[in-house]
Specification:
Structural class: alpha+beta
Distance between the termini: 32 Å
Largest sheet: 7 strands, mixed
Shape: globular
Number of strands: 9
Helix content: 10-25%
Length: 178
């Protein structure tokens, strides 16, 4: 994906991109309290990870974030959920207090944007992250990706539900070479 559309503007993405089937990358971020934290691609308890990014909380993104968080709070399997912004979130206190499932983090070291291909490198949202969702399976591979070509398009929760079910039931515990 070379560009993202937003309000009739074409925004270019960074060249690097991680796709479904590839091993996810561990990334360093900063948590709500401005402490460095490593988001790991796999966990000893075999839980999945959901990495979600938005450019900011303006222009309806806040409502979509709350809707996604509400959806994920009803999922009954262990999933580590992270909401990632490029910079400091304007209303992070309000957002943190409303989130039930997601942990709010900042891509301060530019690892998520650069390694996952979500960094916008042109236009009015330059140096922010595009809207994206990466479901990382229990073995640390990218299982599902949703990166709408238009930022006005909401993340597909129905498709996410299907992919969560597939990821949870298809894992055999031995990885792709077992």
């Amino acid at each position: 994906m070379d560009s993202i559309k937003y309000n009739d503007e074409n925004l270019e993405l960074i060249d690097d991109f991680i796709d479904v089937g590839y091993m996810a990358e561990n990334i360093d971020v900063v948590n709500f309290y401005n402490e460095k934290k490593e988001l790991r691609r796999s966990h000893s308890d075999k839980s999945m990870t959901l990495l979600v990014s938005f450019p900011n909380t303006n222009n309806g993104f806040h409502d979509e974030i709350i809707k996604l968080d509400e959806f994920m709070s009803h999922i009954q399997v262990d999933i580590n959920c992270y909401l990632i912004f490029a910079g400091d979130c304007e209303d992070k206190i309000v957002l943190k207090n409303r989130l039930k499932k997601f942990e709010l983090v900042c891509d301060k070291f530019d690892e998520f944007g650069s390694m996952y291909g979500t960094k916008l490198v042109s236009g009015s949202l330059e140096n922010m992250l595009c809207k994206s969702l990466f479901l990382i399976s229990k073995d640390g591979a990218v299982f599902h990706l949703d990166m709408p070509a238009n930022l006005d398009t909401q993340i597909d929760l129905y498709k996410l539900q299907v992919e969560l079910n597939k990821a949870y039931t298809s894992y055999n515990g031995v990885g792709c070479h077992g």
